[in-house]
Amino acid sequence: MPKPPGAAWRAQPATRRGSWTTQLDRCSINKSGKMIRPWFRQAAVPWKTTAHPDKSIWGESSLHQTGVLHSGRVDGLQVLIDECWRGRRWVVETDIASCFSAIPHEKLMEAVEERVCDQSVLKLLRAMLRAGVMEDGRVQRTVAGTPQGGVVSPVMCNVYLHRLDRAWDDGEGVLVRFADDLVVMCWSRSQAEQALERLTELLAGLGLEPKAAKTRIVHLAEGGEGFDFLGFHHRLVRSRGRNGKKPVAFLARWPADKAMQHARDRIRELTRRSRLLLAPEWIVEDLNQFLRGLGRLFPVR
Q1: What span, in angstroms and rounded, lies between the C-alpha atoms of 258 and 92?
Q2: pLDDT, tens digit (0-9, with 9 covering 90-100), for 136-160
Q3: What is the C-alpha separation between 33 and 14, in angstroms, rounded?
Q4: Distance, CA of 238 to CA of 81 (rounded, Å)
Q5: Which stretches of the chain are DSSP H helices?
């Protein structure tokens, strides 16, 4: 399955193995995912926030990835604002290289069995992982990876990476993870370097590694560079200080260039000349449906 470039670090379009199951299998796997999701949600590691000190915001990553905009994503964005306001202005930005393709099956099932004892569910999950991929008419069996495109793959990914969340110490920096994308908020550059070293060590223990081309340390400063996370570009800016109020520096965010380019490409596709023979109402409905989803993903507050 072709993977479009979408970023400057990927010069040529890459490919990845996809997974398309029959409708019956898809329903069975989806039902299993809904069954195990609450069990692991109970064990989620809490994200701490300074905005509401009396309220614990549970960072469940995408264990509940069922909607366009869900609370785990919103909570993660709020943690970035809170920690930046505290003074953590050094950010380790990275994601996990080929995460869905590199997770070892045996270690993944060990993580699942920590919370799940239903043998029928475990048997179904093992069958899904061992189904293999057909390439050039031949079925290839693998010992690592969750199926790309599988309805339960995001859940399985987070079940495995939950081990990273448990092993992380906030003294090494505040880790904010959503699926295989993560950032660490730190006080200084030396702490950020130590956090990156510790993160690399923990991922190696899981059979994973950070993606070198997308790993960097960013210093948040006025007029300086920012970083992309969860579809937004984050950068430190200073308010104008209207009505006699003192200007303050805060972490602002707006849709990332990659997200906006995808939106423009989608709008061009929906309004291309080959669709001129369709009824205008159909085109308008398709366009409105996309714009409503885009509005939910990047809400204006």
Answers
A1: 20
A2: 777 777 778 776 666 677 888 888 8
A3: 29
A4: 14
A5: 23-41, 71-86, 99-102, 105-113, 119-129, 153-167, 189-205, 257-270, 280-297
